[in-house]
Write a structure and sequence with these properties.
Immunoglobulin-like, mainly beta, 3-stranded antiparallel sheet, 4-stranded antiparallel sheet, 277 residues
């Protein structure tokens, strides 16, 4: 498979969740989305290789490559944990935590360009600033007039420059999630089938799910009789008529009238979604 080298080929989303406690420190939970040049998602097993560089174009490698030989890519989505060791046996702990870093991703030995700028490299072992133990990437609802210090509005804008935002930039990339007008839904499969949707099994954090109405039926009772029973003619029902070759008691189809508002939604109250940096 050939993926053309263009910015439209690769879209990258780093998980909004810190690596699980059970995972060793100096690891980076990384998730991404791959498409072909025409926008169709990539599918199947592919070799992915990751390395970090100091610039967007230099061939000098700070760390890597770490090679995954058969990564499942489902509807464009993949997930890996970086930092176990690269081909030289180094962990991410050996990478200096200051300075700009660029992540290079090779798919089946072809590099996706441009490289992703992630600011200073931050791993699970990097402590939060000023003794604040609130994890970066935490999303909370807020109803005040101004987003408090240490948080940013989830409005889809670029993350401001500066080292104070490095923890969040390492998780989300350059942009904030845009959660305006969206409800949040817990990922995973609920133990109660009533609250379980199988389509959520492979969803990633912040992957938007379009609105839908659950499949259902409307029962409508109707009956027909023919103007000339058995000989064709006009079929009648108590909601209308149709020019068809009709026999007594044949089917008669109707559409229901359109009703309702511009969207389907539960009762709700508005909040601002904000994210910790």
């Amino acid at each position: 498979m050939t993926l053309p080298r263009s910015p439209a080929t690769l879209a990258l989303i780093v998980s909004l969740l810190q690596p699980p406690v059970a995972v060793a420190t100096n690891l980076m939970n990384h998730q991404g989305f791959l498409t072909r040049a025409d926008g169709t998602p990539v599918e199947g097993l592919h070799q992915l290789a990751f390395s970090f560089h100091e610039t967007a174009s230099t061939q000098t490698v700070i760390w890597g490559p770490q090679v995954f030989n058969a990564v499942p890519v489902l509807a464009g989505h993949y997930a890996v944990i970086l930092g176990t060791t690269d081909t030289a046996g180094r962990s991410l702990e050996t990478v200096p935590e200051t300075g700009e870093r660029y992540l290079s991703i090779r798919v089946d030995d072809e590099e996706m360009l441009p490289r992703l700028s992630i600011g200073a490299l931050t791993t699970a072992s990097t402590p939060p600033p000023s003794g604040d133990q609130t994890p970066a990437g935490l999303i909370a609802a807020y109803v005040g007039g101004q987003i408090p210090e240490g948080w940013l509005d989830c409005d889809g804008s670029l993350i401001p420059e500066g080292n104070r935002y490095d923890r969040l930039r390492a998780i989300t990339g350059r942009k904030l999630p845009d959660l305006r007008g969206l409800f949040l839904r817990g990922l995973g499969q609920n133990a109660d089938p009533m609250f379980r949707y199988e389509g959520d099994a492979g969803r990633n954090p912040l992957e938007v799910q379009q609105d839908a109405v659950q499949r259902h039926v409307h029962v409508m009772e109707d009956y027909t009789f023919s103007e000339n029973a058995g000989n064709g003619g006009r079929a009648w029902g108590h909601l209308g008529q149709s020019d068809i070759d009709n026999a007594p008691a044949s089917p008669f189809l109707h559409d229901t009238r359109a009703t309702g508002g511009e969207e389907t939604r539960p009762k709700n109250a508005g909040v601002h979604w904000m994210i910790k940096y």
